[in-house]
Amino acid sequence: MNREATDLAGVRHIAFDSLGSTNAEALVRARTGERGPLWITAAQQEIGRGRRGKEWASPVGNLYSSLLLTDPAPQAIAAQLSFVAALALHDAVADRAPHLGPLLTVKWPNDVLLGGAKIAGILIEAESGPPFAAVIGMGVNCASHPADTPYPATDLRTAGANVMPEMLLRALAAAMQARLAQWDRGQGFAAIRSAWLKRAAGLGQDIRVRLPEREFSGVFDGLDEQGRLLVRSEDGTTAVTAGEVFGFGQA
Ligand SMILES: O=C(O)CCCC[C@@H]1SC[C@@H]2NC(=O)N[C@@H]21
Known about the structure:
By secondary structure, the protein is α+β, with helices and mostly antiparallel strands.
């Protein structure tokens, strides 16, 4: 469990050889009074966390990073950080593997796809505080991807790009800084929303949405000003706050 403290685009960074989860480490630090911004990374995770309580397979060779932010914005709009992070991941991968840029898309609420297959995931967790703290966990499949996912997945190596996690992290730290500045604690969400929509998978296409209580189909019509997914069906337009999207052959 070696640790190494460095600086990443002007932000403190602690790199571990191995951790249970970089998100868990960042949350414990927030709870015990550590203030962000702080990057926590690990070469591998023993119990990497995915969304909806799923495991995130975390062997050596991929990127596992969490950015701890203290009081990044009013708690009610902190979910917007998932769009900020998706754009930063998109920017960073396109920076390190420019030939793959045209194949990269973002998928609501917070995945990055390469050729329609998932290449990166985001898990945002928070400590209500005070002070309110948000942990933005980001995993990128650089060298490998799990074979047993219920959705298509891929990795940069399979796509023909040899990108070391450390190099991708540098690009990600710079991109996060730029996108957080653009977001401006929520004041700039309109610009983030429009940049996200330009990169969105399946805009204008039929999708299927799974809500906790039901499933329905419709046309992916965009995002509202709060980042809710707009789905048009015979019943009118539904604004979805939390759910799972599938269809158009994507994850
Ligand atoms: O299910 C998803 O798509 C979200 C995956 C998030 C994985 C990252 S890897 C770094 C950070 N630490 C974790 O335990 N999870 C996130």
